[in-house]
Amino acid sequence: MVKKIKKNQIIFTATILIMIVVSLTNISLISCKNIEKNTYEIDKYTELRNNMVDYQITARGITDKKVIETMRKVPRHEFVDQYLKDSAYADRPLSIGMGQTISQPYIVALMTESLELTGNERVLEIGTGSGYQAAVLSEIVKEVYTVEIITYLHQKSNKILSSYSNVATSNHDGYYGWEEYAPFDRIIVTAAPDHIPQPLVEQLTDEGIMVLPVGPPGWNQVLW
């Protein structure tokens, strides 16, 4: 049996084939562009992170290898708003909303090193903030318990920290610690009280270490 096909049908069929080829080509080009963009961003932030460690942290005397390796690894830019991502590795604190900041990278490194971590500790953090400090700790220690009094910041950081399986978060006043999970081997306070909260002292193990900035606003604050 011979089937007749009109000329316009052939043209129509050819047009469809051309459209399909063009569409597939466009999809391929879009995919390649997305891959290139993602690769560029990964490389860019990796370079910024390494520069942060080299010029802000080790250059200022931080020597703990666990701290150094962790701060090369944790993506600090994921803990700030989109418009601040390219500034995430700058040598300064950045706004995270509600009048709060993500600490300067060196301060995070200094406080973490001051905890003298071996890797088996249960750590309580007072003042989750952006969640960055908790993420850094989670890469080094066994368990991290972090408390944030500001509900907005708690909800925001909790979304990011949910991917860290050894981090537990809570929205309550950190002055009173987290008695349910006490005692803790280490306690780190990122906010600056004008005195050392007694509930935190009571929730620290006998051989434990607490690190916190102490001093009234406007004064030079000292790490203890």
TrEMBL record:
The chain crosses the membrane at residues 12-30. The keyword Transferase applies. It is found in: Cytoplasm. InterPro entries: PCMT (IPR000682), SAM-dependent_MTases_sf (IPR029063). It is an enzyme of class 2 (transferase). GO terms for molecular function: protein-L-isoaspartate (D-aspartate) O-methyltransferase activity. One of its GO terms (biological process) is methylation. Keywords: Cytoplasm, Membrane, Methyltransferase, S-adenosyl-L-methionine, Transferase, Transmembrane, Transmembrane helix. Its EC number is 2.1.1.77. Coiled coil: none annotated. Gene3D superfamilies: Vaccinia Virus protein VP39. SUPFAM superfamilies: S-adenosyl-L-methionine-dependent methyltransferases. GO terms for cellular component: cytoplasm. The keyword S-adenosyl-L-methionine applies. PANTHER family: PROTEIN-L-ISOASPARTATE O-METHYLTRANSFERASE, PROTEIN-L-ISOASPARTATE(D-ASPARTATE) O-METHYLTRANSFERASE. Belongs to the methyltransferase superfamily. L-isoaspartyl/D-aspartyl protein methyltransferase family. This is protein-L-isoaspartate(D-aspartate) O-methyltransferase. It comes from marine sediment metagenome.
